[in-house]
Design goal:
By secondary structure, the protein is mainly alpha-helical. The chain has one domain. 62% of the residues lie in helices and 6% in strands. The strands form two sheets. The protein has a three-stranded antiparallel beta sheet with strand order 2-1-3. Strands 5-4-6 form a three-stranded antiparallel beta sheet. Strand 1 and strand 2 form a beta hairpin. Helix 3 runs antiparallel to helix 4, helix 3 runs antiparallel to helix 8 and helix 4 runs parallel beside helix 6. The longest helix is centred in the first third of the chain and has 43 residues.
């Protein structure tokens, strides 16, 4: 009899503890979901979205979503996952458009170097052109990695982050960025000297590299309906601009002009679609996160001061900082395993001019 009472008491205690545990999990889940909704609401109302002006609508799961129906709308518990996925695709489409423009520029750059090589009297110029072309091709890679980091920072708030349950090749930009990273070494190891055969081989390698990446990008752009952009017309504008600047004595070689143009494309994308969207950089883990809503007016003022201080100047080599961040990111895990919503004090709006973020090992 006594044993039965003890057994019953133990069972009751287990049931009580189990009930408390379930209530705790439910309460934590509601709290985390509320914070997710607040974070996504804040992100989608960020002023930096005005820079995303090349996406008309996106296509996902047999539905179409217009840009204005996703950005600046109120997010609820029930709609949070949908807005997260749509925001990821919108930003991914805009990034895809930028990458497509960069690849187009690299392709035409390669054709210009080939033209110099075939002219025979310009072997030295062809060599210099090819060296610059390799540099600019490499320059795109760290920007592409930051694009992936930014998209991951949005998806981490989703109940089922993209790529965790789908085939990763279906995730926007995943394939092209993965292959950019994997094939970067091939570009870096291209042997080059003032030799026609070596220059020709280098140009052929880059041509194949860019062709493959542009084909991969086409699959990603099936998600997107972009505003029309006539790249050939843009190319002619560049050539006219170069001719004008050449008469002013500012440029002598077209490939130097192209080099500067591609650097400008990379830096503008970084500024407008990473920094000004308020992505947060954790200096301890070298990971990128969404900025969180300020808790008070003082925090909001401080945050705006930080953002206003982030601008491109000639005094800072921002491209070098992007490359340094690429090296840091490469040392981290490819995917996030935990949803992090409450950020520690060391996390702040990423400022590319704060050299304390970077340490030399």
């Amino acid at each position: 009899m006594q044993f039965s009472k003890i057994k019953m008491a133990v069972i009751l205690n287990i049931q009580v503890y189990f009930f408390i545990f379930i209530v705790f999990l439910y309460t934590e889940g509601i709290s985390n979901k509320r914070k997710s909704v607040d974070a996504i609401n804040y992100f989608l109302h960020h002023c930096g979205w005005k820079n995303i002006n090349d996406v008309e609508l996106i296509k996902y799961m047999n539905n179409e979503y217009k840009f204005d129906h996703v950005i600046n709308n109120s997010v609820t518990y029930n709609s949070c996952n949908k807005y997260i996925r749509n925001a990821t695709i919108i930003l991914g489409c805009s990034y895809a458009n930028d990458l497509n423009t960069m690849f187009f520029a690299i392709n035409n750059f390669q054709e210009h170097c080939t033209m110099l090589l075939n002219s025979k009297n310009s072997l030295i110029s062809a060599n210099k052109c090819t060296v610059k072309l390799i540099e600019k091709t490499e320059e795109i890679v760290p920007m592409a990695i930051l694009m992936k980091e930014a998209l991951n920072a949005i998806e981490i708030f989703h109940n089922r982050p993209w790529g965790n349950h789908n085939k990763k090749k279906n995730v926007i930009l995943n394939e092209v960025i993965k292959n950019l990273q994997q094939n970067e070494t091939i570009i870096k190891l291209i042997p080059l000297s003032i030799n026609m055969n070596l220059i020709d081989a280098a140009l052929s390698t880059i041509k194949k590299f860019v062709f493959a990446r542009r084909n991969e990008l086409k699959a990603d752009m099936e998600f997107c309906q972009l505003k029309p952009l006539e790249l050939n017309s843009e190319w002619h504008l560049w050539k006219n601009e170069f001719n004008t600047l050449k008469t002013q004595g500012k440029y002598q070689e077209f490939f130097i002009f192209l080099s500067d143009k591609i650097s400008s494309l990379v830096l503008t994308t970084y500024q407008k679609k990473f920094v000004e969207l308020g992505f947060v950089f954790d200096s301890n883990t070298n990971r990128t996160f969404l900025s969180i809503p300020p808790n008070n007016i003082k925090q909001d003022v401080k945050r705006n001061q930080i953002i206003n201080s982030i601008k491109l100047t000639n005094d800072v080599d921002v491209m070098e900082l992007i490359k340094q961040q690429e090296l840091q990111i490469k040392n981290e895990e490819e995917n996030y395993s935990d949803v992090i919503i409450e950020y520690p004090e060391n996390m702040k709006i990423f400022n590319p001019y704060d050299t304390q973020l970077y340490t030399t090992v």
